[in-house]
Amino acid sequence: MINLTISEGVAEIVLDAPKKLNSLDEGALDALDAAYQEAEAAGVRALLLRGEGKGFCAGRDISHVVPATDDALGYLQDKVTPLMRRMAAFPAPTFAAVQGACLGVGLGLAIATDVVYVAENAKIGSPFAALGATLDSGGHALFVERLGAHRTLDLIYTADLMSGAEAVTAGLFSRAVPADELLDFTRGKAAVAAAGATLAFRESKALVAAVRDQRIGLWASLEAENHAQGRLCDSADYSEGFAAFQQKRKPVFHGR
């Protein structure tokens, strides 16, 4: 089950199948995609994704998968990848609160989110050695970029899992937080972002994606920054930010 609530400009999407650690079948992926579409249509200024119960998301729900007839390619290519692209392109800051298992497709959901805060005791890695399957949902790209080839293959071959604290120390995600503080911490950060200059955040989100995916270098990045700043000059939030600075008060942004 996927639940969506919207309050004060923040969408909160909850993976709500705690008995199976929020693992996802095709129907759940469709519902999650629809929730992101609904949140975007509502014009929210930040989004928080979390899992109910002890785990964030243990990956694909394989409880009823028959290997002989399994269409893994269809599941990943036609369901998971489009969802991850929609998540990554969401037109506002996105946050994930990750506790417990964050594996397979669950790891992919985290990869497609702007900012990921993890519980210190989260479990992150590649559990597929026991299944005869391979790491998927963008895991290879994330691990090789942040951990290097040797550590990546170590995790894949051994199926050892990293704690949330270890993952943050290794540079996989943003911050590690005690498990009992994670949700309040993440909600607080999402609320701050929702009160910020949304158009400026969108520009930075696009720039970061270009540096990551297109590998643009210093000068191309600088040129893109120049044009982004030029576009922002015409925004109401840009005028408000400068006026607040000059008047020595806190700015009030409206995301436009």
Automatic annotation (TrEMBL):
It comes from the Bacteria. InterPro entries: ClpP/crotonase-like_dom_sf (IPR029045), Enoyl-CoA_hydra/iso (IPR001753), Enoyl-CoA_hydra_C (IPR014748). One of its GO terms (molecular function) is catalytic activity. Pfam families: ECH_1. Signal peptide: none annotated. Coiled coil: none annotated. Belongs to the enoyl-CoA hydratase/isomerase family. This is Crotonase. The lineage of its organism: Bacteria, Bacillati, Actinomycetota, Actinomycetes, Micrococcales.
